[in-house]
Design brief:
- The longest helix has 17 residues.
- The termini are far apart.
- By secondary structure, this protein is of the alpha+beta class.
- It is about 35% helix and about 15% strand.
- It has a five-stranded antiparallel β-sheet with strand order 2-3-1-5-4.
């Protein structure tokens, strides 16, 4: 009898260890969960002044103004800042214009927008369309952060400061004030400034009267002088 040919036997294949191989849907869910946790960890805390308003000031104003509805309590709506170019407009000095834009952007943390003349005025050598200044409108978190720095950092640095006038309201609960120097803000280095310029600041509130707006701004720390 012919000997039967021995058939070669193949080596047994090793099974892949558990947990390796294709990722399952659970792994994807884990990745998403990690991303969500990271996003929550990077979440920016609310401004200090907003927390103070919601936890303290609002309740105080309800009692002081004798309001029954919390929605009727006055609050900050927006803050408008305006800076004029002055002689830089007629003298066509781009360095001063650029500095005003950069200063207002640094102070507010929001890009300033150039304003132009709406009509020509010959007495001021002003032509329609000329760049006359820049402005910024702040709302939300940036508004509260700027107001906090304005009240607690910038205003106390004003020379010979004796308090803000309580008569600068417009009759609709909005308050306007002027600063003569932008260097009262720590974001501006006086040594590097091309020129010293001021700005106008208008704080707009939801108050129904000037007296309500005055109580709101006082509660938020604005230093008014006695009438």
């Amino acid at each position: 009898m012919a000997e039967e040919a021995k058939k070669p036997t193949s080596a047994p294949q090793e099974s892949a260890p558990k947990g390796e191989g294709k990722k399952t849907g659970g792994d994807k869910g884990g990745d998403k969960g990690g991303e969500k946790a990271g996003a929550e960890a990077r979440k920016v805390p609310p401004p200090r002044l907003r927390v103070k308003y919601e936890q303290q000031v609002r309740k105080q104003l309800m009692e002081r103004l004798k309001l029954e509805n919390v929605m009727a309590v006055p609050k900050l709506k927006k803050i408008c800042l305006n800076c004029g170019f002055g002689k830089a407009t007629t003298e066509n000095n781009p360095k001063v214009m650029e500095q005003c834009l950069n200063d207002l952007t640094a102070i507010t943390g929001q890009k300033a927008v150039v304003t132009v003349a709406k009509k020509s005025i010959s007495n001021f050598k002003l032509r329609e369309g000329m760049k006359v200044g820049c402005r910024v409108t702040l709302r939300g978190a940036r508004m509260y952060e700027f107001f906090d720095r304005l009240v607690n950092v910038a205003i106390p640095r004003i020379r010979d400061f004796r308090g803000l006038s309580p008569r600068a309201f417009d009759g609709r609960g909005n308050y306007s004030m002027g600063l003569q120097e932008q260097t009262v803000f720590p974001e501006i280095e006086a040594d590097k400034a091309e020129a010293i310029h001021g700005m106008d600041i208008t704080v707009c509130t939801s108050a129904r009267s000037d007296s309500e707006a005055l109580e709101l701004l006082k509660a938020l720390g604005m230093p008014f002088r006695e009438r």
